[in-house]
Each structure stands twice: as structure tokens, then as C-alpha cells.
Amino acid sequence: MENPPFLDPLKAPPDLPRIPSRARDSSKRDYGSILVVGGAAGMAGAPALAGMAALRSGAGLVSLAVPAAVAAVAAGFDPCLMTHSLPSRDDGTFASDALEGLFSLAGRADTVAVGPGIGRTEATGMIVARLWADLPQPAVFDADALWWLSRLDPEALAGHAGPRLITPHAGEMRRFLADGSTAGAIPSRQFLEDAAATLAEEYGLVILLKGPDTLISDGVKRFFNTTGNPGMASGGSGDVLTGITAALLAQSTVGGGRLSTMDAARLAAWVHGRAGDLAAEELGPISLTAVDIIRHLPGAFRAVVGAAAGR
Fold this sequence. Notes:
alpha/beta, 11 strands
């Protein structure tokens, strides 16, 4: 079968960050502990997809922190995931008193992913705001967490304790534009890219603006990713990207040390798209699902593994 036009047959770009192959004496603790915070009634699959993607992206340990109402469902997706049940409301979302448990779990994590399936109640809004402000480690925020972040005042958005990455699509990005500059019109892609770079610089973030040519920017530099295909426009694909990114934020580079937030985002975007391209090559774009992207992550990662890290 010939490669379809959306499958890039080339290897990863030479300037793309690499991760080291694994040393024989390494353990799971060397590859990061990831906490995924999310889930609600009817949305237990979202944090599970992020967790499964993190596992396939090299994380040593992955835990899901979910409302008690959906803990049993979330735990059933993958036996390699650890699941923590936290107080929930009658509607199946986090209760406000889940916050203490979330910070306790986060204290044992190298990186945190917040948002997949988390919902839009006042309690989840408070939880998202507190995690944004107070988590000291790198954290990626996506999905409904972005809905809440777009409602923070500028001082709160800028006041985060650790490195932050957000991964909006175009619609989510528009919510951050509170100045009315897009009222009554659909902004161009270039407008959104410029706005994303400005937002990143003003608030000390890295933004991964999803789209046909995904932008990754810290406000100073801009990188574009060209892997991926239209078959990835399906539910759960963004949750998979969140999990990949969270795992890579805890990974080492070939030269030693952690990947920077920018490098983790660049690598995650490329790997996510490449896995989607491999899935589309096998299945075609019409039938591609988020689970298929996860299944093809091993093939995508083979292109970005470098020499073993020194010890």
C-alpha cells in the first residue's frame, strides 16, 4: 500500500528533541510519575485515555485522580493505571473537598495533567484555579480546565507556581480573547496564532495551539508541527495529546536533564501526529479513533529515541 498524502515518510526533523534509550539498571522511578486529574459522570474515558497515552509515552507510573462516582469505570480501562477515588457530588463531578486529596496525590507526582472530562461546576472551577496557582511542578491543562482558565483575571492567570502548558484548539483559544477583538467574526488562523504567542509571553506559559499546522510558542519562539491528518478529528484525540505531553514533561533528554516545557510540547505534537498518521495508513482516516492513536505511539516513538543517557 502506498503512503497516503498525509503520511510523512521522513524521519523526525533533526532539530526535534530526542529522548534517551533506557539504561539496563533503570527503574520506573527514572521515567516519571504522572497524575491525571479529571473525569465526571459520562466522561470517565477522558482521563483514562490521557493516562493510557502517558503510559505508552514512557511514563514510569501513571495515576488517575477521579470523582468517586466514576472511579470503578475509570479503573477498568487499563490495569496498568492506578486509580484514586476522591469525593464527588451527586452529579458525578468533583466535590470541593476533593482538593485536599488532589494536592496530596500531586505531591508524589513529577507532572500533572488537569482537565480531561473534568466538567464545569463551581467546584471544578475552584479546583482548576487552585491547581493552576499552586502546583510547583510542570502541569498541562486542557479541555474543561481551559474553560475555567479563560475566566481567570490576568493576575490569577499569571500567578502560577510552576511551568504551565495549555493545549487549546481554535474555539478554546477564542475564549481567552476577552477584549472583544473577535466579536461577530471568526478570526483567521494567523490572528489566533499571534494571540496565542502574545498570551504565552504575557503569562509565562507555553501554548500548543492545535490545528492543521499546530503552533507551539512561549511568546518568543514559534514552532509549527505538520504531522497529523483529518482522521484525528475525533473525540478523545486531545486527551491522548494531553497524556503524551504530561509523560514527556517528566522525561530526560539525550544530553541529560529534563525536557523543557517547550521541547516536551514540540515532541508531543510531533509524536501525536505521527501516531495518527501511522494509524491512518493502516485504517484510513474515516475509522480512526483516539485508541488507534495510542496503539500506534510505539511506532512513532521509535523515530525520536536517541543514545542511552549517561549514568
